[in-house]
Design brief:
Structural class: mainly alpha
Distance between the termini: 38 Å
Strand content: under 5%
């Protein structure tokens, strides 16, 4: 079957390509290069000296701890929600899907303010928390809660369309053959969604480490205690420590590049699996009876 050709002239096509390349260079590549150039302005010695600061290591440690807690929590929720939405019909299904998308439509700053309203000293639960010596706002728990909120949809949103496209025949066959629910998930469902799962986890982890708005509201900006890497970059830059600020920012940039590489591999594998699945069974039901 022949493919339709576009009606645009070669001049229009090449002009669009050149325009896209120029925009990519100006808005993506040059700023990224500028981060590394500024970080290395005083050489490798100055670079590693800027990173070898107690407050910098504290921010790196807090960022890793936050991501190590937030990502697994969203992993459990994302898989559970995707399984329920893709495999079953139930009352309130559309409402649950809408709630999953809520963090996409709410500003991270507003999300942080919500937690201040609930857990802050003057918030709904503030007096009770103070009476029991529990500190959430301006402490690590508040940072983790805010990060969980803003990264809430990533894994679920990657898995829902993938699991809907795969249908449920394989799960039904496993159950008929005597497999338990856990065995069905571990040996049938999980291998089919593994690349989509990896893709979602990568995006969730990248957002968790790079989140600024919500974390900035609930952290209190306490140096060495509640500053994540993005917040530490802001403080260093405001103090005119540009080399140190760009050095820490370069770590986030490297994380973004590694994330992009792994994301591209996972996306390619996921699309390949979907194409193979569509070729084998183009029409598959998406819900269990």
């Amino acid at each position: 079957m022949s493919h339709r050709q576009t009606t645009e002239t070669p001049l229009v096509r090449y002009s669009l390509i050149v325009l896209a390349v120029i925009c990519m260079v100006l808005f993506l590549i040059l700023p990224l290069l500028a981060v590394f150039v500024e970080a290395l302005r005083k050489g490798w010695g100055g670079y590693f000296s800027a990173l070898n600061e107690p407050d910098t290591w504290a921010s790196i440690k807090l960022t890793l701890i936050t991501a190590a807690i937030a990502v697994p929590l969203n992993l459990v929720f994302g898989v559970s929600a995707a399984w329920a939405i893709a495999k079953y019909d139930f009352r309130g299904k559309s409402f649950l899907t809408t709630l999953i998308d809520l963090p996409f439509s709410v500003s991270p700053v507003v999300a942080g303010l919500i937690y201040v309203l609930v857990f802050g000293a003057q918030g709904w639960l503030g007096p009770w928390l103070a009476a029991h010596d529990i500190k959430i706002i301006f402490a690590v728990p508040g940072i983790i809660l805010a990060t969980v909120f803003v990264t809430f949809p990533f894994i679920a949103r990657e898995l829902i369309p993938l699991m809907q496209a795969q249908g449920n025949e394989e799960e039904q066959a496993a159950i008929v053959l005597g497999a338990t629910g856990w065995q069905t998930f571990w040996y049938v469902t999980l291998p089919n969604i593994k690349w989509g799962l990896i893709y979602g986890v990568i995006l969730c982890n990248a957002r968790a480490m790079g989140e600024f708005g919500a974390v900035s509201v609930v952290s209190g900006h306490i140096r060495g205690q509640t500053n994540t890497m993005p917040l530490h970059v802001e403080i260093l830059y405001n103090e005119y420590q540009s080399v140190a600020a760009f050095a820490v920012a370069s770590l986030l940039a490297l994380l973004a590049l590694v994330t992009l590489l792994i994301k591209s591999v996972a996306e390619w594998r996921m699309l390949r699996d979907l194409k193979a699945l569509s070729a084998l069974s183009p029409e598959r039901p998406s819900t269990l009876a």
